[in-house]
Amino acid sequence: MPLTVELALDARATLGEGPTWDAEKQRLYWVDIDEMKLHAFNPLDGTDTACEVGCRVGAAVPRASGGMILATQFGFEAFDLETGKRTLLADPESHLRDNRFNDGKCDPRGRFWAGTMSLVREPKAAALYVLDTDGSVRRVLDGVTTSNGLGWSLDQSTMYYIDTPTLEVAAFDYDGDTGTIDRRRVVVKFPDGVGRPDGMTVDAEGMLWVAHWDGGRVTRWDPADGSLLLTVPLEADRVTSCTFGGPDLDRLYVTTAREGLDEEALARQPHAGGLFVVEPGVRGLPAVPYGG
Ligand code: CA
To answer: How far is the centre of ligand 1, averaged over its atoms, from the C-alpha of 30 (Å)?
Structure first.
């Protein structure tokens, strides 16, 4: 039976991104990068509240000690959801004014990994960073162009990573004790004509779910042999990211964008920028909050 994709929220986001499920609050956090907003969607009643962040925000994760941690155009920042106040923690690219932070996620030990991208599309000018739980920041990867999806294998020995223009999902050996990565290899190669890989999540069977920017779909892949397991088409070309949520982590939430679509394209996909949801028959893993 084909999977049914529902529009969970007709958000009309300019650049919807970075969904993360907060199991404690039963909310889906997501960001609209270009509108500089952090959203909280409540699937129980379908309501969505937006907080003004005041700058471009690429990713937001709950913090174990309260509030949120953001990866913004200014660096790593703490964010108080009640007051809307940002507090700068670290700006590892203060010397690179044309870069901003993009996608980010916590590893299984509660470190926040987030990478950057060039706003003027300078190739290989970006990097991937880790905000450790003691508040220090390390650069873990250079020569990145558009840092995007992140994920970890079930046995926590491997990190998956997407630098979008490579059209690949890479894997690295991941050392949880030290928070370091090594030995890059390719586990998924995007064929021509399906768009570019953007955000990503790992399901409870260890398979990868990848959002297709300009590809109008999310796909499920086996990282062991690079095989495509499932394609879920969406009524939006610019699919940005996905994550599992809901009380049983059995619903895949998918963010999309309206950015860059002309009137003709928007007429064909009026719900572009929406938050979509599908029950794919597999569960996800709980998101890890920032541990610092
Ligand atoms: Ca992205």
So the answer is: 12
